[in-house]
Design brief:
The complex is a heterodimer.
Chain A lengths: L5 H21 L3 H26 L5 H31 L13
Helix pairs in contact in A: 1-2, 2-3
Chain B lengths: L8 H16 L8 H27 L1 E2 L2 E2 L2 E10 L5 E8 L1 H24 L6 H19 L4 H19 L6 H32 L4 H8 L5 H8 L1 E2 L2 E2 H16 L8 H4 L5 H10 L4 H8 L1 H4 L3 H22 L5 H21 L9 H31 L15 H15 L5 H16 L1 H26 L16 H16 L22 H22 L5 H9 L1 H7 L4 H47 L7 H23 L4
Antiparallel strand pairs in B: 1-2, 3-4, 5-6
The chains are: A mainly alpha, B mainly alpha.
């Protein structure tokens, strides 16, 4: 355990964050975009836990916040699915490029 | 000193009537608007006469001379500590005489219009406009400040515009009202520049103070205004001549007279009020008001004299050839105002020298009566014949006896036959001219003879010339209100000469004793009688002699008949020269350069917006990218701004 530095874990979480961002900007499937958002949230979670464990081992603030984030992410996923279902009902497609009515 | 505050009611009552009739007359007061208007002017007239009685008989004199009394003064607009526009009421002999005359003639016209304009669709509007005019004219003569007179001057022009163009469905009436307004407005440009010059050098706009400062040879203002010069003439001359140009426009002096004949398109009572007795004398009034300053500058007086004399002669010549009865009367008005103008021009200031001033005001007084009577009689005739042209008339003396008698009285008055009113006032004018310049006197006497000739030509063409008609008229000679007006004005034309104006209205306020010099008056009266005899010979019965004379005069007759082509010259100058050389280039610049620049700005904006519209693509992921880009930018900015601190 002692061989793994804080910076190693932070590197992993940053990588996950940017992978999630890339997926958010690039993927056409709305469900896949939702998965990317979940990835971003998870990377933030890892950040919080890592900082908690390595810098303040006798406190639990980071863990509490991580639980909050999980809860919020779950609620947000439910709302996002509801939106996707609505969009599917009007466009009959879950391609995000098909929902471009706000074009000039 | 009793309070003269009731004098504010004199212009105020017609104003209130105008607002009332203008706003509510059309719908609610239609039938009674005439009576309402007439009643309000009746009260105004009574107040004016009371003022005149107060001023001339009771309390106007101080030390033997009539003083200028400021009845009211209210600072309206302060330009600088010295110069301000104060609205005020100035009472002095000419303004008191004018309010008496203006309100009386307005009352007569209101009464006459009750019958003349009956059945007119816009009856209430007509009376509203008449009240507006009366308000403006009364305000003009009571003005205490030269800017105030300018304001009312413009108001009078607007009222005239509205009244000339009253029958706005007729294109000729619309054109005539436009012409009158534009020409007088153009003259008012001169007036305004004159005001500015006089105000600049004398440091005030108030009449009393201005006249005081510019009429004492030692005052610094007089020295500066008479020593400063521009293109050879002193600034005093320029200021006075420019103010006179404004007066000449309103008073239809040559060459700004072309609007007056066309202004006859308006209803005849309007011609009687505005273009005979009141508005057209506004120019004469202005010169009389500033007369003390004019008398210090002989070049300005010469301009006044020559313009007056020339206009008088020109108008008399043209009037001999016209066939529209209202046009003859219009030119006659121009001629008589020319008389008033040159009487002022040849006058001096103070005592016997001021005879011309007194004569001019006296002639203004008597002219108001007989000229409005002439126009109203013409209106009665037109009402019956339904045509303005002399050729359609003739032999009306049996079926319109009252009009006939009144017209005859007025013609005798204007020809200067004793003991009618015109004789007295014309004699004084001719006497003043004789004492000053024999040449002016000669032209004036010749013009008087011509006046007698063309007026009786008009008289005979209407009432004699053909077989006396005896058919019954469907409405009689006119309604009671029309007839009573003619009777009242005929009495005034008969006896107006006996009113002792010379003891009230003089250049310096001291009464002037005048007597009739029979040896002097013989010649003008004889010439007038000759003119009448010639007119009788040529026009009393229908014959070929006038035609023969006209054809023998050939080109000169045609020139006079076409009013010396002055209208055509104006049209040429405006259409061919001003429109083409100034109007069209200006319009081109406005359309292509100024508008073009604005259009260019709009086009550039449109092109730029077209280019950047792609940002709004409707794709959520693009928006997310912009969001991310913004965050990167903000983060970089934040790091850059704080990296020194840490």
């Amino acid at each position: 355990m002692q061989d793994i530095n804080l910076s190693h874990i932070l590197f992993v979480s940053t990588a996950l964050f940017f992978i999630g961002m890339f997926g958010l900007f690039t993927r056409r499937n709305m469900i896949t975009m939702l998965m990317s958002v979940e990835l971003i949230l998870n990377s933030v979670n890892i950040n919080f836990i890592a900082f908690n464990k390595y810098l303040y081992p006798d406190k639990l603030d980071g863990v509490f916040f991580a639980i909050f984030i999980i809860t919020i992410a779950a609620a947000e996923a439910a709302v996002a699915i509801a939106i996707i279902i609505n969009l599917y009902r009007s466009h009959h497609s879950i391609d995000v490029e098909d929902a471009s009515e706000m074009k000039y | 000193m009793n309070s003269y505050a009731y004098i504010t009611l004199i212009p105020l009552l017609p104003l209130i009537t105008f607002v009332l009739l203008g706003l509510f007359g059309g719908k609610y007061l239609k039938a009674s608007s005439g009576v309402l208007g007439t009643l309000s002017i009746l009260i105004t007239t009574l107040l004016s006469w009371y003022t005149a009685w107060q001023y001339f008989f009771i309390s106007g004199k101080t030390g033997g001379a009539y003083q200028q009394i400021i009845a009211l003064k209210y600072t309206w607009l302060q330009f600088s500590p010295n110069i301000s526009i104060d609205m005020g009421i100035l009472l002095d002999p000419i303004s008191v005489m004018m309010i008496a005359v203006v309100s009386f003639v307005s009352l007569m016209v209101h009464l006459f219009s009750l019958g003349y304009m009956k059945g007119e669709e816009r009856f209430a509007t007509y009376y509203a406009f008449l009240s507006l005019f009366t308000f403006s004219m009364l305000g003009l003569v009571l003005a205490a400040n030269i800017f105030q007179i300018y304001i009312f001057w413009e108001l009078v022009g607007v009222s005239s515009f509205l009244l000339i163009g009253f029958y706005f469905e007729k294109p000729s009436a619309v054109a005539a009202s436009k012409k009158a307004f534009i020409i007088t407005r153009f003259a008012d440009l001169g007036f305004l520049i004159g005001i500015l010059i006089l105000a600049f050098y004398s440091g005030t706009l108030d009449f009393g103070v201005l006249i005081n400062r510019l009429t004492s040879l030692q005052s610094p203002e007089y020295v500066s205004i008479s020593s400063a010069s521009f293109m050879g003439a002193s600034m005093l001359t320029w200021g006075l001549v420019l103010v006179f140009i404004g007066g000449a426009g309103k008073s239809a002096m040559f060459p700004l007279h072309v609007w007056l004949p066309d202004a006859m398109e308006g209803p005849t009572p309007v011609s009687a009020l505005i273009h005979a007795a009141t508005m057209v004398v506004a120019g004469v009034f202005l010169v009389a008001r500033l007369f003390p300053v004019f008398s210090f500058n002989s070049s300005a007086l010469q301009v006044v004299t020559f313009t007056g004399v020339f206009s008088a002669l020109l108008a008399a010549i043209i009037a001999c050839t016209q066939t529209d009865i209202k046009r003859v009367l219009a030119f006659s008005t121009m001629s008589q105002i020319g008389f008033m103008m040159f009487a002022l021009g040849v006058s001096g200031y103070g005592g016997e020298k001021g005879l011309g001033y007194m004569a001019s005001m006296f002639h203004l007084f008597t002219h108001a009566f007989f000229k409005s009577l002439l126009f109203l009689c013409a209106g009665a005739v037109i009402h019956v014949i339904h045509s303005n042209d002399m050729k359609d008339m003739g032999g009306l003396r049996k079926i319109m006896p009252l009009t006939h008698m009144s017209f005859l009285i007025a013609c005798l008055a204007i020809s200067g036959i004793p003991p009618f009113s015109g004789f007295f006032s014309k004699e004084e004018i001719l006497l003043a001219a004789y004492r000053s310049s024999k040449m002016v006197y000669a032209v004036a006497v010749m013009t008087s003879a011509l006046t007698a000739f063309y007026m009786f030509r008009l008289y005979y063409s209407i009432f004699w010339s053909k077989e006396a008609r005896t058919d019954a008229l469907p409405h009689g000679e006119g309604t009671g209100s029309m007839k009573i007006t003619l009777v009242i004005l005929a009495v005034c034309s008969l006896f107006g000469g006996f009113v002792p104006i010379s003891s009230w209205v003089t250049s310096d306020g001291f009464p002037l004793k005048t007597q009739i010099d029979f040896g002097f008056s013989i010649w003008p009266v004889l010439l007038a009688v000759t003119g009448i005899a010639l007119a009788t010979y040529l026009y009393k019965t229908e014959n070929k002699k006038p035609q023969q004379i006209a054809s023998s005069l050939g080109g000169f007759y045609k020139l006079a008949y076409q009013k010396f082509y002055i209208d055509e010259i104006y049209l040429f100058i405006t259409r061919k020269i001003i429109f083409n050389l100034i109007g069209r280039p200006a319009a081109w610049i406005d359309k292509h350069i100024i508008d073009g620049f604005m259009n260019l700005l709009a086009t550039i904006t449109e092109k730029i917006s077209w280019i950047i519209r792609g940002i709004q693509s409707g794709k959520v992921q693009n928006y997310a990218l912009y969001f991310f880009g913004g965050i990167i930018g903000l983060a970089a900015l934040f790091i850059y701004l704080t990296h020194n601190a840490s």
